[in-house]
Amino acid sequence: MSTKHVISQFPEWFEQLLSEESLSRVKDHLDQCSKCRKYYSRMALLMQPPGDDTFPELEPDPYLATRVKAIAQKKAGVFKPVKWLKWTLVGAASSIAILLGVELGNGLYTETQTDTNTEIVATYYQAFSQEGIADQWQDVIQTKQDTNQ
Predict the structure, then answer these.
(1) What is the dihedral of CA 36, 41, 47, 48, to 10 degrees?
(2) Which alpha helices (DSSP H) does 9-132 contain, by range?
(3) Residue boundaries of the structural domains of the chain
(4) Using N-to-C axis directions, what is the helix angle for 20-32 and 34-47, rounded to 10°?
(5) What is the pLDDT of residue 59?
(6) What is the pLDDT of residues 50-85, one digit of tens each?
(7) For the range 11-17, what are the long-range contacts, defined as Cβ-Cβ under 8 Å and sequence gap of 24 or more?
(8) Element (H, E) at 135
(9) Element (H or E) spanning 149, and its range?
(10) Long-range contacts at 74-78 (CB < 8 A, ≥ 24 apart)
(11) Is the pLDDT of residue 15 over 80?
(12) Cut 0.85: pTM above it
């Protein structure tokens, strides 16, 4: 039996899933091959579940809440004028832009309101009574063809 074959059978050997015949061949090989014997012993040690004494018993820190509170109070007392000033300027600029837009919009609105109702109706009538875009496009194509000839 080759070393690669024996090493590939380790998971089945560890979980005791090998047949009697395969198990006896693996045992014979392990008796003769120190490299495979060393591999099997190390892997078996790694595959064992940890015992209860493996992990240390952890105690909660009784002063954790006090330390967190002290850090929060320390950070809360720090004045950051740069951020405060930045957001104040952004708010002021936004307010000015809105007021300017409203004033300009009012001026435009009053200028366009000079039309009377009859003028508005006449404008709508002219817009809807015109030829469609397809008819106009046909005229453009026809004119282009006439100029090319």
Answers:
(1) 160
(2) 10-14, 20-32, 34-47, 64-76, 81-112, 117-129
(3) 3-47, 78-132
(4) 120
(5) 86
(6) 666 667 778 888 999 999 988 888 887 765 666 777
(7) 13/40, 14/43, 14/44, 14/47
(8) helix 133-148
(9) none
(10) none
(11) yes
(12) no
